[in-house]
Amino acid sequence: MSGVAIAFMLLTMGGVLALNALCIGLWLRRGKAPPAPPDSTPPAAPPGGPPAS
Question: CA of 7: how far to CAs of 2, 17, 19, 20, 41, in Å?
Fold first, then answer.
């Protein structure tokens, strides 16, 4: 096998694994959302001005 074929195979497998891990991470994070009551506001969004960094 030439170096180009090996590099292409590694890039393809790496991209597929990265995409798979991203999808699994998003799916798990969506599935493990804490059951919050619908009238509570999320604490991640402060209601005033830009966030202090």
Answer: 9, 15, 18, 20, 49
**What is d(CA 10, CA 8) in angstroms, rounded to the nearest whole number?**
5
Q: How far lies 12's CA from each of 2, 7, 33, in Å?
A: 16, 8, 32
* Residue 40 falls in which region: left (phi positive, over 0), alpha (psi -120 to 50) or beta: beta
pTM for this structure?
0.42
Each residue's pLDDT, cut to its tens digit, for the chain (53 residues) gives 799 999 999 999 999 999 999 989 988 888 765 655 566 555 565 556 565 55
